[in-house]
Design goal:
Mean pLDDT: 75
Strand order of the largest sheet: 6-5-8-9
Low-confidence stretches: 78-87
Helix content: 10-25%
Order of helices and strands: HEEHHEEEEEEE
Structural class: alpha+beta
CATH topology of the largest domain: Immunoglobulin-like
CATH superfamily of the largest domain: Macroglobulin (MG2) domain
Distance between the termini: 37 Å
Number of strands: 9
CATH class of the largest domain: Mainly Beta
Largest sheet: 4 strands, antiparallel
Number of helices: 3
Radius of gyration: 20 Å
Length: 172
């Protein structure tokens, strides 16, 4: 990240490729407040992950390659689980999905349920179920995946006070 949005893209990209690697994302944007990340300093390295954009690594002026890699690995996996019914009350099958999958939910108390589908970047692809009132018990809902590109997606299932993220692999 460029401290003050005053570094040209070529310089920023070259620095990032040399010091972090070619798989990093470099950007310069005056709308980003460096105070949100501990103030200015170059290099500024921030690893952000998950749908809530949690900061897993934040460094000014130094690069700790091990800590950086650990943060990247953690950010890519945290909160994304394919739980069994006994663990979270939500499952999806079959995985990989080849046209459609079935989401199975267990509801402990009457509540509203919302289900949204996100791509690997955390961008919402579609709403599957929105604030649907459900009684205690088990219910299933089918998701049509035939129009989705092959890849990894995440289902965000909100039921009462619980939110689960379930990985869905699409292979049409």
């Amino acid at each position: 990240m460029d401290d003050y949005a005053n570094t040209n893209c070529t310089t920023l990209t070259n620095w990032g490729n040399s010091n972090i690697g070619t798989n990093s994302t470099k950007f310069s944007n005056a709308a980003i407040s460096m105070n949100d990340y501990g103030g200015p300093g170059m290099p500024k390295i921030v690893v952000v992950g998950g749908l809530d954009h949690h900061v897993y690594y934040n460094s000014n002026d130094t690069v700790n390659a091990t800590a950086l890699q650990n943060a990247i690995n953690f950010a890519c996996t945290t909160g994304i689980n394919n739980h069994s019914i006994s663990d979270a009350g939500v499952t999806v099958f079959p995985v990989p999905s080849t046209g459609s999958s079935l989401i199975n939910c267990i509801i402990e108390n009457r509540t509203t349920v919302s289900i949204e589908l996100f791509d690997i970047r955390g961008i919402k692809v579609k709403t599957i179920l929105e604030n649907s009132f459900r009684m205690p018990g088990e219910f299933n809902i089918e998701i049509n995946t035939s129009s989705l590109s092959d890849g990894i997606y995440f289902l965000k299932v909100k039921r009462g006070g619980k939110t689960d993220f379930i990985k869905l692999i699409v292979s049409n």
